[in-house]
Design a protein that fits this description.
Layout (H helix, E strand, L loop, with lengths): L8 E6 L5 E6 L4 E8 L7 E9 L8 E5 L2 E5 L5 E4 L4
Antiparallel strand pairs: 1-2, 2-3, 3-4, 5-6, 6-7
Length: 86
Amino acid sequence: MFGCHRADVHALCVSADEQRVYAAGVDPTMVEFELAPISHNSHWTVWQRGSVRCHHTHDIRAAIMINGYVITGGRWLHLYFVTGLC
């Protein structure tokens, strides 16, 4: 997505307000994308890269957002609960 990952993306999740998307995959990186207006007075929006986090040591296979937490997991039975990405 947007050249932010070094390998395939396997998991996407969307915030409840649909203003943020989180992408993760083979490289153990979680990347946040935020929907933002093109200019101050514009109704047009564009996806901008936000926070980048690297909590996992192996690929991320699943991601979900619940109550403001992004929960990610992979093959190695480790779950990570992350808040404050924004």
